[in-house]
Design goal:
- A hairpin with a 4-residue loop joins strand 2 and strand 3.
- Strands 2-3-4-1-5-8-7-6 form an 8-stranded mixed beta sheet. Strands 10-11-12-9-13-16-15-14 form an 8-stranded mixed beta sheet, covered by helices on one side.
- The two termini are 29 Å apart.
- It has 5 helices and 16 strands.
- 21% of the residues lie in helices and 40% in strands.
- It is α+β, with helices and mostly antiparallel strands.
Length: 249
Amino acid sequence: MFRKVHHVGIVVRSLEAALDFYRDCLGLPVVRMAEVPDQGVRAALLASGESELELLEPTDPSTGVARFLAKRGEGLHHLCLETDDVAGELTRFGARGVPLIDRVPRPGLAGRIGFLHPEACAGVLVELATPTEARPPAAAPLGLCRVVVGTEDPVGLGERLQSLFGLPLQEINAGKRVQAEAGPVALLLVPADQAGGTQGMLALSLQTDDLAAAIARLEAGRRGFLRGAREITVEPASSHGVPLHISQP
């Protein structure tokens, strides 16, 4: 059973610089931080509502995370779904012929983890995680509410996510867009041609009960952003390559 989006992974050049934005400027609390030698990264998990954001700084140039940074720069890297039984899910997917990177779980910052191959979900790198310790969500001023994904076939990718993970679907704009519900986080699947041809994760949306306070923190940190009626869009140069929308319901 897949419970929710556990976290979204973000590759950064410097963990300290990224923490200066996500922790110190946005106010997201760090729930765990460690070096993960077998993955060649220094990483931190920060609370954001019922989910988390994972910051990944490569420490080994031969790893996939380092190659991602060298090729694409800082930005959105992977989507992690929480499950009660990562080992069982990997076995089940392997039996179905789903392309996998990991056939058995390994330790990670989020607990016991395993990755599907990006081919399994139209280029989106999906991680599965079973936390090894139960903890209530840490209080945070901003909560992850939406992940925007570009794809050539929103309906097809939505059906794939439903088939693999049991996520409920909702068609939007007569099927031109599809929304998959992963707990309190929505995965909004949009046509790639509406996103400059980009496929994969495009942007994150966070919600807050106090937009004025979020604006004040960004201004104090001298971070660039654009104002809307009840939302702001942080410039990717300020958020380490992540198009980031912050809104107040």
